[in-house]
Structure formats: C-alpha cells, structure tokens
Please model this.
Amino acid sequence: TSGLMVSAKTGHINHINKEALRLFNIPHLSHVKSLSNLDQKLYAAVEGLQPDSRTECTLQDKEIRIKKVLGLQCVEINLKGEDVRIVTIQDLSLEMERKEC
Model:
C-alpha cells in the first residue's frame, strides 16, 4: 500500500491517506511545511521533488528509534481547475534490508 498526499501550490494538504500518515507516524497533516517539525530532511525532499521525479529519504522515528527508507514520487496535475501535486510515499525499508543481505 502506498501513501498518498495531494497538496495545492500553496502547500496546503488537500488530501492525505491513512497510509501516508502511518508512514510519517503522525495523526494528521494540514500543510507541507509541517513536515519540517517531523524531519527537516523529509520536508526538504518533499519540497524539492520535481514533477515526474523520484527520490529516497531516510526518516528516523524518534519514538521507536527505527529508520525508515521512504521512496517519494511526484506528479503535478490539474484537478478540477486547480494545479495540485500528488506525492506517493512508499516504505522501501524491507527492500533495502533484502539488498543488504
């Protein structure tokens, strides 16, 4: 299952699914800038994503002290007259562990 986050050009989150919230380990998110409170590198990775590009970001969970490797991908579309960014988030941690073996 992939996390999905739809944001306006202003950074306001129009939609975020439960999987994205689970991957970020947060209860809700209303603005992309709020990711900087969670992890500065994650915020920079999401902000810096270019349309039709992918990147990876390591997220250190402070509560359970586990590192997650997240794959981020971005597309920009016009949805009902509004330009939006759709970011998909995938947990690549298991894939990375398999590669290390």
Q: What stands out?
A: The radius of gyration is 13 Å. The chain has four helices and five strands. The mean pLDDT is 90. Residues 40-48 form the longest helix (9 residues).
